Amino acid sequence: MTQDELKKLVAKAAVQEILNLLPEHSLLGMGTGSTVNFLIDELKEYANYFSGVVSSSDATSQRLLSNGFKVLDANTVQSLPLYIDGADEIDPDGNMLKGGGGALTREKIVASLASQFICICDATKLVPVLGQFPLPVEVIPMASAQIQRVLEALGGQVRIRNSKVDPNLPFVTDNQGWILDVKGLAIENPLALETKLNQIPGVICNGIFAIQSANMLLVSAIDQVQKTI
Ligand code: 5RP
Question: What is the distance between the alpha carbons of residues 218 and 229, in angstroms, rounded to a whole number?
Answer without folding.
Answer: 9
